[in-house]
Design goal:
four-stranded antiparallel beta sheet; alpha+beta; about 240 residues; 2 domains; elongated; two-stranded antiparallel sheet; 8 helices
Length: about 240
Amino acid sequence: MESDKDIHSYFWERMQEAVGVLPKHLMRILNLQGYSSCDALAEVKDSDVTQIQSDMRLLAPVKKACLGTDEMRNLYGQFATSPESFIFLNGERKAILKIAEVVRKYGIHHFLPGTSGKPCTDFRPSAKSSDLADVLLRKIKTYYGSRRVDTIDFACFFAKLDGLTATVSIQEDGSAIGMVTCKMCKPEKTVKLKKTPMGTWLLGNFVKHSSQYHYCVRNSKPNMKRNSAEIVTSTPKKKKIRNRV
C-alpha cells in the first residue's frame, strides 16, 4: 500500500506534466490544506484562494514556533520571515485556479496512482468528454426550449443559453460530472451537474441556479403546445385591479 506521501508526490508529478512547473511552497500549502489528491480541489475558486491565505496567516505563530528557517521558507516562500503578512503572488493565485480547472476537466483520478488515464504530456480533452459536454449543453437548451413561451424575457434568457460552456470528467463507475460555467452571472458561476451510469443528465442544479438568478419556469413539465407553460419572469408584472361599479 502506498503512503500518503507517495500519493501526493505522484499527484504533483502528474499535475506538473499538465500545468508546468509549480512553486514548491504552493504545493506544500495545498497539501497542508488537504486539497492535494482530493476531489475538492476541483471546486476551488478565487474566494477559496483568499481563504487559504487567511489560514496561512492564522497558522503563522504555530509554524514559527515549531519550524526552522529552511522549513518556513519551504512553506511560506518569500514570506518566510513575515508569515503573518502572507499572500499569494498573482502568478501563484492563477496557478492554483489553473490546477482546479484541470482537475474539473479530467477528474481527480487521472492524477492518482493506479489510473489508466492518458499520459499527461497530451492533455487535450478526450473526444468522449468533449462529446458529453456538447450533449449536456444541448440537454439544457432542450429543457428550456420545450417550455418556451412567446415573451421577450424568455427569448432573451433562451438566447443567452448559447453562452454556456461545460467540461465533463468521466468517473470510474460510468457516471460523469459536468461543470457548467454560467456566463450570465457576473462574476461567472460554475454549476455542478451529474450524469448517471444509465446515461441521464440530472439538470436540477442548473434549473435551481437559473430560477434563483435568471429565469424561473413554474411548470416543470414540457409543453405539448408552445404556449401552454406558465413562466415567471424575474420582474413579474402586478395585476391591475379594476373597481367594479
